[in-house]
Amino acid sequence: MDENCPKKKIAILSAGNHIAYSPTVIQLHETLSRFYTVTILAGFDKNFINQKIDDKNIEYYENEIWVKPSYTLKVKYFFLRRFNTHAKRLEAAKLRLKMDYSHFRVVKNFLKKTIYHRVIAVDVQNLFYCSVLNIKADFISLELGIGEDLLPFIKRETINCVITQSLARYQYLFKEEKHTTFFVQNAPVFEENYFTGIKKGLLYGGTAWDAFGFYHCLKYLSGYKDETLTVQGAVMEETKKIITEKYNFLLQEKRLFLNSIYLDNKDVVGYFAQFEIGICFYNFDVDWVQHFNYETAPSGKIFKYLAAGVPVLAVDIIGFKFIDEMACGVLIKDLSTESIRAGIEKIRGNYNFYAANTITAAKHFSFDKAVQPYIDYLEKNMINTAG
Predict the structure, then answer these.
(1) Is residue 248 predicted with pLDDT exceeding 90?
(2) How far apart are CA 83 and CA 33, in angstroms?
(3) Distance (Å, rounded) from C-alpha 139 to C-alpha 120?
(4) In Å, what is the CA distance from 377 to each residue of 23, 164, 381?
(5) Which in 67, 116, 222, 254 has the greatest CB count within 10 A?
(6) What pTM did the predictor assign?
(7) In the predicted model, what is the mean pLDDT of residues 123-150?
């Protein structure tokens, strides 16, 4: 790339309201910013345990809170439905104007005020908005099941390429369609970790939810006095209340530790390195977890465990098969206390073997290595895709 030429501009349309917990988007921003001027459009939910990132070029917006439409708004929606081409397309795709039109306008105005040479749409709804606006986009699929009903309404010629985690997840979205595709895991850039202390305790990374097997972990902890568990991630108020009511003794015995302080992508790996085993569960008894998205989800926390040299205890699903294949941890069939104990003991019984394999796996999945083919593709295909 010619360093004397002005940097071309890239827009990343982030999905959801929690950009601080989307390492793929953050790392892509860091990587692309070496060559281009990159701006992220990101929602922000102040009611969630959240964090704004100050050292990235991010334009934040807050989603409007839905209220019962006033007479004036009803009139506005009446005319939008009949005379606004974009609103008609949103409703044709079964999106609700009261919920989604304001979000669409945020995206539209963001893309309109600056000429971007490349637009990257994260998840299906942002890709749909680009299609409505006739703007070509590179599509990053992070979450399946969100907005997938919009796929039939997306003009395929507006898709430049697809970035996803696996062939199975690509085929879920596009069946036999052929698009230029890159497979990139939600993994950190591998750096040698020189933690030399004794690794102690179990680690639960991410949001402490029943959907992610958190209460199964507490039940296990209650039955084994020799165990400690540290939570590094968001703990919702409802969860804190349940902990206080049912598991406060674990806090008093100093066997459960809650750390909700935000750590960036680099710091979190160093922090994880002090722990013995990292836990990654999905609780398929929760209705909304019973989806292909979670059955095939290679969770980002796993790759942070691996980069930290921490073997993984995970539930046995398609998305985690590589843990067994690369022997960097142990998979268990269910979340019973007995199964959790057996998995932990199996890791401890051959700990150095599993720990060594985590480094091999972390190098294999390192973000910089995986994303390089996409960077090369951009350099060859960088054109003005904004309309």
Answers:
(1) yes
(2) 40
(3) 6
(4) 21, 15, 6
(5) 116
(6) 0.85
(7) 90
Query: Which two tokens mark 222?
Result: 């209650």
Domains of the chain by start residue, with CATH: 9-185+367-381 (3.40.50.11930), 202-365 (3.40.50.2000)
In the predicted model, is pLDDT for residue 70 greater than 70?
A: no
Alpha carbon distance 280, 205 (integer Å) = 8
Q: Are 312 and 300 in contact (CB under 8 A)?
A: no
User: How far does CA 58 lie from the centroid of its chain?
Assistant: 17
Determine the Cα–Cα distance for residues 60 and 252; give it in Å rounded to an integer.
40
First and final C-alpha spacing in the chain: 24
pLDDT of residue 65: 56
Sheet containing 329-332: order of strands:
256-259, 229-232, 202-205, 277-280, 312-315, 329-332
Identify the pLDDT of residue 387: 43
Give dist(CA 8, CA 260) in Å, integer. Answer: 37
For 31-63, what is each residue's pLDDT tens digit?
Answer: 999 999 999 998 877 665 556 777 788 988 876
Contacts for 194 with CB less than 8 Å, ≥ 6 apart: none
Backbone phi, psi, residue 103, to 5°:
-65, -45
Report helix angle 85-92 to 71-83, nearest 10.
90
CA distance 314 to 282: 8
Structure tokens belonging to residue 92 = 């044709």
Banded pLDDT at 15 (limits 50, 70, 90): confident
